[in-house]
Amino acid sequence: SAAYVLANGEYLLLRGGTVVNHDHQSLADVLIKDDIIQFVGLNLEVPHGATVIDARGKLVMPGGIDPHTHLDMPFMGATSCDNFYSGQAAALAGGTTMHIDFALPVEQDLLKGWQKWQAKASTGCMDYSFHMAITNWNNKTKDDMATLAAQGINSFKFFMAYKGSLQVTDEELLMGMAQCKKLGALPMVHAENGDAVAWGQRYVAEELEITGPEGHSLSRPPYVEGEATGRAIRL
Questions:
Q1: What is the mean pLDDT of residues 133-147?
Q2: What is the mean pLDDT of residues 9-33?
Q3: Minimal CA–CA distance to 132: which of 178, 88, 101?
Q4: Span 94-124, pLDDT tens digits
Q5: Are residues 71 and 117 in contact, defined by beta-carbon separation less than 8 angstroms?
Q6: CB under 8 Å to 91, separation ≥6 — which residues?
Q7: What are the beta bridge partners of residue 13?
């Protein structure tokens, strides 16, 4: 594979590949100008000066979008190993051309968190956007959600788990979802019963004396997720 950077007004023609969309695939040429697909069809005329790539025998697909990533994210004493450059470079090598990362508040401040994640992303090499996590609730949180929505951040994540860290109460979840409705934004939830998980962690470690990685799934059986999912839907 290769990357082609086009100057303004230059054409790129992908000739004779199998174009794959969500609903069908067919042999076709793809003509691109200014990073925008202009035409898809058979035997397209080659514009003067166009770069032509022989795509016969190859699949031509839209770039993938990964809607759930955690690059350069600190969490419970560790930080994810990929920063925005290394993670995005790996994604591009695999055909993913855009992702949506999760920004966390800084000192419970959404705008400070958004600014910090923008700085993290300044080293990146592909398109990205953010979901914003909501980890507490007050009037400033509500106002900051509106400010972020006006800037294009239209999805907000609520954690029903991670007690003592990111977890919100049912009341906070309700108020947050109500604000999402008002803003036309998408509420998202990490649906696990955080209190039950915290109890399960203590039980597995102290009563069962299991401290290896196999204890992780034992501390949060599937019905812990099912309960929280049902509760979030009903709320």
A1: 97
A2: 93
A3: 101
A4: 989 999 999 999 999 999 999 999 999 999 9
A5: no
A6: 66, 97, 99, 126
A7: 31, 52
Has residue 3 got a pLDDT over 80?
Answer: no
Q: What is the largest CA-CA distance in the chain?
A: 75
Amino acid at 208: L
Which are the contacts of 222, defined by CB distance < 8 A and separation ≥ 6? none
Q: How far apart are CA 148 and CA 105, in angstroms?
A: 12
Nearest to 46 by CA among 18, 17, 12: 12
Give pLDDT, residue 8.
Answer: 62
Place of tokens 């049902």: 230
Alpha helices, H only, 151-221: 170-183, 194-202, 214-219
Coil, strand or helix at 189: strand
Identify the bridge partners of residue 157 per DSSP, sorted by sequence position. Answer: 133, 188
Rg (CA), the chain: 23
Q: Which residues pair with 69 in a beta bridge?
A: 101
DSSP 6: P
Query: Which residues does 102 contact at the CB level (< 8 Å), separation at least 6?
Result: 68, 69, 70, 73, 130, 131, 132, 133, 157
Using CA atoms, how far residue 84 sits from 116, 117, 131, 183, 212, in Å, is 13, 10, 15, 29, 31
* Token reading at 32: 């691109």
Q: Which of 45, 50, 41, 58 is nearest to 4 (CA)?
A: 50
E strands, 70-196, are 74-75, 78-79, 96-103, 127-134, 155-159, 186-190
